[in-house]
Design goal:
Chain B: This is NADH-ubiquinone oxidoreductase chain 2. The complex is a heterodimer. Chain A is α+β, with helices and mostly antiparallel strands. Chain A is built from 6 helices and 13 strands. Chain A is globular and about 55 Å long. The longest helix of chain B is centred in the first third of the chain and has 32 residues. Classes of the chains: A alpha+beta, B mainly alpha.
Chain lengths: 303, 346
């Protein structure tokens, strides 16, 4: 009888719903913490409940696999050809000559698909953000409504941000590719804003997880006028932050391994916002000689 | 860096290298390798830049793994043969493990992925140490055990290193990464001949060290970290620009410069050992590196680069010109006629 009960209990262990009812009487208080960590009934607001297990969502299809393999092999062939041509697929003399370069421009839906938008809906906030092509397909329009109302989940203190971030470049077989911006020293943006202050973020994709939250930021102040403005932000101005906190130990950004660029709005002002971007480019400004804008002197001298 | 810390790191590096190259027992050799690994970590992460820290961590993880593999290989050999002598590595599994471990230590293909990243994250002086001094202990171990190792595996490592070193170096725009891939390619040449004529490996290593030191010291003199800076350095130091190009061509193995000597002798020895296909393949693969260096020399020295040269910060050198750079540059470019003398020295 006792054996039957134990057996029934052990079969119940296999199914998720009964596990906590069975484990606790069996092992008492020992496992309370791990039980709560194994599966939690708390779900962040804004996230969908997980109904199907992730392995069920995979579509095993031989034909799809073959097509994917063909696509990757053609990407690899293109990469090999570009490698033989020169840095980034352009000839070496073009690399020597370039003083400006357009990295992202918005002329079609395909250009918009290279970007990802997000807002504080992820943490339960109420801001909205949308991205669409501007008039006559000249530029992208990032617009929405910022809402600084804090989600009532007991742990969030601040809210109200919207952002747009470029997807990282991916080579064949999902290998990461990086941009080499070492020939340039400034970011050149042609934008038309609404007077709000934006933050430009550059992510250099470190190898280890210790530094995965490292981001280089600087501000972009827009005018609200009907005219387009060209904003030049030198890379020497970008400061290092990690998880949103500006670091004490500042270092200049290294431009040889850039992963993504992003724009964030978080100026704590409720209301609609709009930013039109024509293109994002790079510039080698010969007049700009500053190497790094922040403290480089020794902070605790030994004398 | 704190002078005391610098002293301890440098002394530890010298001590670690000396311990490894003078040891007969595997444990002592391993101790020297570990001392070297730990001593260079503060030198790599000196600037505390996130990329420097990343480079230091990558270096530590790969080198520790390799050291552990060396220890495991020696232990399994000791288990089967009962002795710890470095030259008596007889067990086949131990030989295979040691080959893999030394390949990781040196940065031979297919364990080379850490090397360019670590060099890119370090300063030029530390990169010089990583390319030259840190290669000495593993090469010594390889020389001592070369007669027991599988020649086919060594040939495979050599050809693949020459291939990857040449291929990946083609489009590099950062000088440290260029020299990293050049190092991988040179190590391939050294490994190709180690099983047949270890003296040639020592000669190749010595000449490679001399040429690489000349290049690194020249780059450090004018603080050149990327190609675009190198190409406009003729306004600052025209003579150094020209001699640096000659040294780079020597590194690529172009006759009649010094760098051609080891390649010529290795091809000759491989042909004597009836390994003509290997000799052909490895010499064809070195053409990739030569192409790149020749293109660089063409754009920087033979023709004027198309960039305008009104960079204010490249006006004057900060450091006084060093005589060591001059001596090494001269020897890196003009030692080929002295080949008979040099061959007798090794």
């Amino acid at each position: 009888m006792a054996l039957a009960v134990t057996l029934l209990n052990s079969t119940c262990l296999a199914s998720r719903c009964c596990r906590h009812k069975v484990l606790q009487p069996l092992l008492g208080t020992l496992l309370i913490d791990s039980v709560s960590k194994c599966y939690s009934s708390y779900r962040r607001p804004g996230s969908q409940p997980e109904v199907t297990p992730s392995w069920r969502n995979i579509d095993f299809s031989f034909k799809k696999g073959i097509n994917a393999l063909k696509t990757q092999l053609s990407l690899l062939k293109k990469e090999t050809k570009d490698h033989l041509t020169g840095p980034d697929g352009h000839s070496f003399s073009e690399y020597l000559l370039e003083q400006t370069k357009v990295m992202w421009q918005f002329r079609s839906q395909e250009d918009l698909n290279k970007w990802v938008i997000s807002s504080d809906v992820e943490i339960g906030g109420k801001s909205e953000v949308h991205l669409k092509l501007g008039r006559n397909n000249q530029g992208a329009m990032l617009y929405g409504i910022l809402n600084t109302e804090v989600p009532r989940d007991g742990e969030t203190k601040y809210s109200g941000y919207c952002s747009m971030r470029a997807k990282p470049a991916v080579g064949s077989f999902a290998r990461k590719k990086y941009y080499d911006w070492s020939n340039f020293n400034s970011l050149y943006l042609r934008v038309r804003g609404d007077g709000r202050a934006w933050m430009v973020n550059i992510y250099t994709d470190p190898y280890f997880s210790h530094q995965k939250d490292d981001l280089y930021n600087y501000f972009m102040f827009t005018r609200g006028g009907p005219y387009w403005e060209e904003i030049k932000i030198p890379f020497s101005k970008f400061f290092l932050s990690s998880r949103g906190r500006v670091q004490d130990d500042q270092h200049p950004i290294w431009l040889d391994k850039i992963s993504t660029l992003g724009f964030t709005l978080g100026d704590k002002v409720d209301g609609p916002f709009q930013l039109e971007i024509d293109f994002i480019g790079l510039l080698n400004d010969r007049a700009h000689t500053e190497e790094f804008a922040y403290e480089t002197y020794e902070r605790n001298p030994r004398t | 860096m704190n002078p005391h810390a610098k002293l301890i790191s440098s002394m530890s590096l010298i001590m670690g290298t000396s311990i490894t190259i003078s040891s007969n027992h595997w444990i002592l050799a391993w101790t020297g390798l570990e001392i070297n690994t730990l001593a260079i970590i503060p030198l790599i992460s000196k600037s505390h830049h996130p990329r420097a820290i990343e480079a230091a961590v990558k270096y530590f993880l790969t080198q520790s793994t390799a050291s552990a593999l060396i220890l495991f290989s020696s232990m399994s050999n000791a288990w089967s043969t009962g002795q710890w002598d470095i030259t008596q590595l007889n067990h086949p599994t131990s030989c295979l493990l040691l080959t893999m471990a030394i390949a990781i230590k040196l940065g031979l293909v297919p364990f080379h992925f850490w090397f360019p990243e670590v060099l890119q994250g370090s300063s030029l002086t530390t990169a010089l140490l990583l390319s030259t001094l840190m290669k000495l202990p593993p090469i010594t171990l390889l020389l001592l055990t070369s007669q027991s190792l599988n020649p086919t595996l060594l040939t495979f490592l050599a050809i693949s290193s020459a291939l990857v070193g040449g291929w990946m170096g083609l489009n590099q725009t950062q000088t440290r990464k260029i020299l990293a891939f050049s190092s991988i390619s040179h190590l391939g040449w050294m490994i190709a001949i180690i099983a047949y004529n270890p003296q040639l490996t020592i000669l190749t290593f010595a000449l490679y060290t001399m040429m690489t030191t000349a290049v690194f010291l020249s780059l450090a003199q004018i603080k050149v970290l990327k190609l675009s800076t190198m190409l406009i350095s003729w306004t600052k130091t025209p003579m150094l620009n020209a001699t640096m190009m000659l040294t780079l061509l020597s590194l690529a193995g172009l006759p009649p410069l010094t760098g051609f000597m080891p390649k010529w002798l290795i091809i000759q020895e491989l042909t004597k050992q009836e390994m003509t296909p290997t000799a052909t393949i490895i010499s064809m693969l070195s053409l990739l590196g030569l192409f790149f260096y020749l293109r660089l020399a063409y754009h920087s020295t033979i023709t004027l680069p198309p960039n305008s040269s009104n960079h204010m910060k490249l006006w004057r050198t900060n450091k006084a010109l060093s005589t060591l750079t001059a001596i090494l540059t001269a020897t890196s470019t003009s030692l080929l006629p002295l080949s008979p003398l040099i061959i007798t020295m090794f």
